[in-house]
Amino acid sequence: MINPTLSTTKHLTQQDDASYAFFSGCQPAGIQLNDVAWSPYRDKTLLKPITVTVHPGEFLAIVGPNGSGKTSLLRCLYRTNKPTNGTILLDGKNLWSLSPRQCAQRIATVLQDTGGEFGLSVFEMVEIGLTPKSLMWGRSEEDTHIIESTLVLLDVAHLADRSFDSLSGGERQRVMIARALAQRPDVLILDEPTNHLDIRHQLDVLALLSKLPCTIIVSLHDLALASAYADRVLIMQEGEMKACAPPNEVFTKQRIKQVFDVETIIDEHPVTQRPRFSFYIND
Ligand SMILES: Nc1ncnc2c1ncn2[C@@H]1O[C@H](COP(=O)(O)OP(=O)(O)OP(=O)(O)O)[C@@H](O)[C@H]1O
Q: Tell me: the pLDDT tens digits for 150-196?
């Protein structure tokens, strides 16, 4: 059974419940950032202090121009960039008091442009996702079921025996998402997961993420996708958090002009009832 408190917010159908049954042990985590800053330099702060709480089961999208600090912030959240100031709490525990393995048992990541791994097949790549939670050597029947379920969910089951290295960019991306799902994380962090994906797969992947019974934090360049699927959108500019609110509050013409330097026509999408955008430049 999927966590019943989440079924209400995630709008899961019975069919979804069956598709995500392998996620049943997931305990969506809350993440609290208190004054978190980061920089690789002594004399200059790249990520300016950010205070925000990500609620258990929430879908948070991070948007912002190139170089605004989205990846740097995500790297803090998956325990790669150690904050130079402030604390990050995962369900109330300091992220840096957890071991890398404890972290991997709760947080999965999908990063940009992952390379191949020594000629592994697609099935073997996804199998790696099981490692943090494996208690024994060898693959159980349940493990095989989890791998097969995630391959089907990401529409890559037909590629299971193919070498990962031989896949297209979009196919690789979907396999890496399948691998993260096989990890059955409590928090899933994705850096630009729609890169390389055609429009159908972009929508499929975001719809899938929005239904997963875990906390989702994802960086996106496409404001329309962030608007359509996120519970809240966090806007970054020059290393600073400019806003964090639901799409219909966060996306105003003025803010988009200030942050992205483009003009926007915003109306309501007739199907999703979320903000819809047309961009132009007023030179
Ligand atoms: N380890 C580092 N050393 C020096 N500068 C860094 C480091 N990591 C990030 N930066 C710089 O910090 C800024 C923010 O980078 P970051 O990758 O977080 O931006 P981003 O919003 O993810 O950008 P993009 O949309 O282009 O992917 C950039 O100017 C980048 O060059």
A: 999 999 999 999 999 999 999 999 999 999 999 999 999 999 999 88
Burial classification of residue 138, based on how many CB atoms lie within 10 Å of its CB (0-12 exposed, 13-18 middle, 19 or more buried): exposed
Atom from ligand 1 closest to the CA of residue 236? 21
CA of residue 72 to ligand 1 center, whole Å: 6
If you measure from the C-alpha of residue 278 to the centroid of ligand 1, how many angstroms do you get, rounded to a whole number?
27
Token look-up 């989205």 returns 70
| Token reading at 274 | 């979320």
2 vs 115: CA distance, rounded Å: 33
Q: pLDDT tens across 211-245, in order?
A: 888 999 999 999 999 999 999 999 999 999 999 99
Residues 13/34, Cβ–Cβ less than 8 Å:
no
Share of the chain above pLDDT 90, in %: 74
Q: Domain 27-280: state its class.
A: alpha beta
Cβ–Cβ under 8 Å, residues 50 and 88: no
Ligand 1, atom 20: closest residue by C-alpha: 67
* Pair of tokens at residue 116: 């191949």
Residue 80 CA to ligand 1 center (angstroms) comes to 14
Q: Where are the domains of the chain?
A: 27-280
State the Cα–Cα distance between residues 44 and 226, nearest whole angstrom: 30
Cα separation, 111 vs 113, in Å, equals 7
